[in-house]
Amino acid sequence: MNYCAIDFGTSNSAVAVPDGAALKLAPVEGAYTTLPTSVFFNTDEDTREFGRAALAAYIDGFDGRLMRSMKSILGSPLAENSTDLGDGSAIKYTDVIAIFLDHLKRSAEKSAGAAIDRAVLGRPVFFVDDDPRADQMAQKQLETAARAVGLRDIHFQYEPIAAAFDYESRLTREGLVLVADIGGGTSDFSLVRVGPERMNQVERKDDVLAHHGVHVAGTDFDRRVELTTILRELGYQSLDPEGREIPNRVYFDLATWHLINTVYAPKRVSELGLMRHLFTDVKYHDRLMRVVERRLGHALAAHAEEAKIGVAAGGETVIDLDEVEDDLRLAFDEAQLIEAGQEETRRIVAAARDTVQAAGVSIRDMSAIYFTGGSTGLAFLSGALAAAFPDAEAVFGDRLASVATGLGIHARRVFA
Hints:
Helix content: 25-40%
Number of helices: 13
Distance between the termini: 7 Å
Oligomer: single chain
CATH topology of the largest domain: Nucleotidyltransferase, domain 5
């Protein structure tokens, strides 16, 4: 029984372990069975924190380096590079992923009461869009990290197919389901034939009629929110005295988690300081330099995510930017969120339609669309997907745990 199933997500992660004849999600942070995919290298206290504790330590102002959304760099040249931890030392990004996987593995072993060296790992349909070689490299990098922490027998399963296993466990008759797994980094779709007579089969390749995905999801909505609200108050899309738009690279980097620290390099800070003459309204430059010099980039990104979540929970929210400037507050509502993310929504819906088209079936043949992943909590997004398949029942799984549970079901079939 020494196996586990790991859902290493862009935004949140979980791990499932055997529990007698059943499965359970292992506690991975206190009593929590999911945790944000975050590591904080605390150089003040020479410690490492994970998940919520990592974010809290960073916000509390400890010196160090916060790493988040590490999965999004797999398959890119950046994955094999090293990053500065803020104390003169450096670590490879892939080693950071190994450290996080080790935390999940240790949590699984504690819950199972035994050492674990076998695992099923989830993976998106595409780590990298339209680049099979980079996609293959991404899986290899993840496998290498898993082997580095002592996992020897490793199997991969597509995350949306794992979610289909979880859905299938509740069915009483056969159907055709489009699984929409929309997390932090990718939106993955699988059209799967499911049913009680199929669920105990280990090999289900013939039941997967099509799968497709795009590298667009929750963090992209966060990025849009930050660009269209917060970073406008720092000069994004403002004009110089000649009527030209201010160079925007710094704003795009500030809105991208794994690039934020590149803005703090001394040479770059000096270059940004020399741009003051380009700002028609110098208050924007003052705010930008304050953010860079005080290293507030991750805090701004967190504000954008919190605003998205706040609006998704219902109503209007206020983005408080007191750390940038006293009394700087921005109202934010659902209409602004929908407008900010309209291109991302269009691409996600198009990917879902492409999946069904690739299977060669009519949308009227679908019995359900099954939603999982944290970003399906965005009502306008899940609504747009449901509207694209009006005859299919909209079914919502556990947004953060369906994939881990489904991976556990697959692991039991593979290893038991």
